[in-house]
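quick one before i forget lol
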Amino acid sequence: MRLAGAALSVLDRFWRDIRQSLRVFSKNPAFTCIAVLSIAFGTGANVAMFSAADALILRPLPIQRPAEVVTAMAPRRLVIKAGQLSIEHHRSCTELWRTQA
C-alpha cells in the first residue's frame, strides 16, 4: 500500500509542476513561442541529420553485387574539362577497364 501512495505522490507532484508551467507560459507568451520554436527547430534539424546519415552511411546501397563496384579515375596529369573527352579516348578507357576487370 505504501508503494501506491508513493506513486500517487509522484503523479501529484508531476501534475502540479505541469499546471505551474502552464501558468508561467501563459503569463509570458513571447518566451513560450521562442521556447517552442527552438525545440521544434532543434528536433527537426536532428531528425534531418540522422535521416541523412541513416540513408547515406548506415544502410547499404541498393546494389545487387557490391563487390563488383569500382571507382574509375583519370590520372592527375590528364585534366579533362567538360566536352573535351573524345570518343576515341572514351573507347580506349572502356576497353582498358574491361581488360582489367
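fyi The chain has three helices and no strands.
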